Amino acid sequence: MAVIQENVPLRPLNNYQVGGRARYFAVVGTQADLVVALEFARARQLQIFILGGGTNIVFADEGFDGLVIQVALNGWSINGDKLTSGAATNMEDLVDGSIAAGLSGLEWAGGLPGSLGGAIRGNAGAFQGEIKDAMFAVNSVALKNGRHVARNNQQCQFGYRDSVFKRVDEVIVSATLRLKFSNQATLRRLADEHIAYRKARHPLEYPNGGSVFKNVAVERIPADARQHFREFVKTDPFPVVPSGKIIDDAGLKGYRIGDAQISEKHCNYFVNRGSATASDITALVLYTQKIVSDKFGIKLELEQELVGLRS
Hints:
Uridine Diphospho-n-acetylenolpyruvylglucosamine Reductase, domain 1, 28% strand, 26% helix, Uridine Diphospho-n-acetylenolpyruvylglucosamine Reductase, domain 2
């Protein structure tokens, strides 16, 4: 049975380590627990926020005046070339497990933080790979009535750091990935290279929420700025200019508001230098968008989610 807690601190539950308290909070380890939590929220007409691994989110300092449901549907199995997993399983376990089975399709995610559910919702990607490339089927539950929903890859409407799950009121509970048999040693080497790259290039020594902005499609960049960034275009999975490079060239490396700082190691990472607030991070996001727009005419789109202002 899902236990509903009150006045629960959100700071320890997200990678930025910021935010206030949830009015109500529940950890759900089964679909039955999830249905109970949803019924609790419906009976009280509460807003609901689904919490996965705590990456890519900024909880407001005011907290969340509703029910935060932390999905704890873990566990995974492999049958042939298919891997089936609960949404809360962390990506590191799935990368390691698939490689141990000699299956290719997740090695690009070596070092990727967060849960499978979060990776599906945002169509996580790196090193020219995306979660959609391996996705076979996704199971979710509708928040309004607890109804089970099953989707195939096409029905998930995957886009660049996007999926249908950003536009429907559902919680992902499990998924099946179709992988390909490959050489285990080669896959391990590739994943380890990606892990080493992240450790060297990303500010993992500070609390952070991952990439703040989506990389910018070349077609969305004004002609003058496109010429300026022509040597930095990469395929991700289509031609883009890294937002980190754009922010760097706007002169914002190391810029700080309160204890929130644009990382000097990677400008598309904002870090908590110790006592940053959600307001600090939000102000830094807005300032960065303004300066980049003023300098290059580029509109940076958030990859992260700002959550929980009181109504």
